Amino acid sequence: MPLDESFKNRRTFLRQALGIVPGAVLLSSGGAELLSSATALGATVKPPPATPYAPTFFNAAEWAFLNAAVDRLIPADLEGPGGVELGVPEFIDRQMETGYGYGEFWYLSSPFVPDVDPSLGYQLQYAPREFYRTAIADIDAACVSAHGNAFSALDPATQDAVLTALQKGSLPLARIAKPAEFFIQLLANTKEGYFADPMYGGNKHMGSWKMIGFPGARADFKSWMTRPGVVYPLGPVSIQGEKA
Amino acid sequence: MTVTMKPVDAVVIGLGWTGSILSMELASEGINVVALERGAYRDTAPDWTYPKAVDELKYGIRGELFQRLSKDTVTIRHAVGDTAVPYRQLNVFLLPDNVGGAGVHWNGQHYRPSPEDLKFYSHNVERYGAKFLPEDMTIQDYDVTYDELEPYLDEFERLCGTSGQAGNIRGKLIAGGNPFEGPRSRDYPTPALPDSEGARRFAKAAKEMGYSPFPQPSANCSQPWTNQYGVRLGPCNLCGYCERYGCYIYAKASPQTTILPALLRKPNFEMRTHSTVTKINLSSDGKRATGVTYVDATGQEVIQPADLVILSSFQINNVRLMLLSGIGKPYDPNTGEGVIGKNFAYQMMSESALFFDKDVATNPFIGAGAGAQQIIDEFNADHFDHAPHGFIGGGYILGGTTGGRPLQQLNVPPGTPAWGAAWKKAAKDTYLHSTRVQTHSSVMSYRGAYVDLDPTYRNALGQPLARITFDWHDNEYKMTKFVTDRALEIVAKMNPKSHTVTMRKPGEHFNTRQYQTTHITGGVITGADPKTSAVNRYSQSWDVPNLFVFGASAFPQNFGYNPTGLIGGLTYMGAHAIREKYLKSPGPLVPV
């Protein structure tokens, strides 16, 4: 099973790379490049970007978590590109520098009453930036305590188990009253980075749009609107004019 | 220090659909009109030109066009006695902001009410008996009949260039239209948009089952249209970016594409943006509005005296400003007395995503927020006998997609995990072969569903947030089960490989995390009796006759259709009454 083998190798490589490379190096240049090289083992993968992305907001440990988590949430395989190779971690890092990251879109005035019925929505005090900073540290601490290692150094099956526990709200975190809220945030931002226009740093070369068949910013179907059921023939374009 | 401006004839609070119509109609009378809009001015060019308008992250997900909740929001609780908590992230309904309001980012789903919707209390009591209604249900009649309202519903359709297929012109039924609609004086301004593949399959199945499917009426023009103000719209190209987006192609009716180009040229009209009205000011006896107080972009408090005040902001802001200004008696859920805040309602939807074989190309991204979908109306309003079913109200069933934007509109088959390799494979395999069937239904009003001022939370200006008390009731759970079951029979007939079902079930609370519609209603309701309503049939305040309040805040309960068509009709009816009667003889238009 060459695919399985290549993925096993890739996992080992990824784990070792993230585990061994010191944070400062990873932060400045290593992370994205190593991950891209690793995913290049897959069949549908693009060549690595010319300039590796250096995160602005996330520190080395957070960046390692984010890359590892995104790689589990949307893994690379023969079906199509994974979240890491499409730049989802870069997308999330860049979002942290926007008004959204600072919480401009959310009402964050006190008092906070997190223990209400979940149907009443998000009730924590964190804007996205603080949410990532606090939750990643708490998740890594929980992983060290339970498994002896930070999340990024765990094997994929254990990482999946941690993410599933987070999703179900059964992974207690030191400072997050409702841990499942962080999973909602992480998964939403991951899918955003996967499917949003490439100008935001994710969905490199419209990889996800090509995979599903979405024509992106074409947004003019005058010539096709009276042909229901006939396969639309054109590939995607991006807002900045990239074509596929 | 507060600044006082020169008095004007009329001040308009909020420049969305209703404020734009009133500004235009009043300015056409030659009187001086100032519109105060808390948000910014925006227009097709330069704000949402192609391709920057078709940005799903910016508009669909972050909500560029909506109210920034950090500045202002509402609080929500499920029952009287609970502590309400803030609506911190936009999900279940969207709150509009800026010039054009929700008229910019609506879908253009443009319906008229069914005749019985306007007399929903007396109609149901007459047909099923008073005991058929639950004891705590507080539905009421509008003080206007369908036939009285028809010219104004028509006028709003002409404004929008609305596309569709008439089903009933002056009592004559027309094949291919909605056989349940009230008599229309004439056809839609422009013909219906073409069907998407999902709509085509839905209509075929529905027809085979004996229903009468018809194209969804849409305020997205199908042909160029010049409206009564001389403003010209262009045809829709089914780009798939409607709801939450500004229309880059001038096809979707909005204040910007139908009114503002003519209004902004009028010398007796002035628009002041970044001007947030904090209070409607009253004379010392409380019987007359003297104008408004607002805060401008610099934080300066300004008093604008006016002879006539038009309150035309979004539903929840209308209610809050009435409460903050002390106009009308606040509603008390314990006694059922008072009117301001009374009868808050919403709508209830259900949805099924359908997945076909790979040889079926649905092209889900070809669509419009309205149009290119097909509807059946057999289970809406009182179009069927409710007696065996134990509930009132209902909804329409629609087939097709409004677009295929992958973050908001990509569905995966039942049982697919939310993440991981299996999710990705499902997304890849099914995206191009999927479509959707939905139900869009009424919600009645109840004694315990209302709006007041929150005792704890405040907005950026330090004013109390509006507090919504709302949850589902048995009538609506029964209704959605019945209508959804009918929808699922059509889904089965469409014969997909698999399908999902999303439906509200007994025991589930109103969930603020799941978007359904932006159609929140009530709180400044219209009616025939000042004891049970806040405004009369012309949208005039019973308490302060030189104040008119427009918008979905007028609905005594929420019907099964999207609200904008009815809002437009009520707005034109009020505008005509002001022009033709009130300005000649200011005072109550309906004797108290």
UniProtKB/TrEMBL annotation, chain A:
Pfam families: Gluconate_2-dh3 (PF13618). This is Gluconate 2-dehydrogenase subunit 3 family protein. The lineage of its organism: Bacteria, Pseudomonadati, Pseudomonadota, Alphaproteobacteria, Acetobacterales.
Automatic annotation (TrEMBL), chain B:
Residues 450-567 form the Glucose-methanol-choline oxidoreductase C-terminal domain. InterPro entries: FAD/NAD-bd_sf (IPR036188), GMC_OxRdtase_N (IPR000172), GMC_OxRtase_C (IPR007867). Keywords: FAD, Flavoprotein, Oxidoreductase. GO terms for molecular function: flavin adenine dinucleotide binding; oxidoreductase activity, acting on CH-OH group of donors. Residues 235-347 form the Glucose-methanol-choline oxidoreductase N-terminal domain. Belongs to the GMC oxidoreductase family. This is GMC family oxidoreductase. It comes from Acetobacter garciniae.
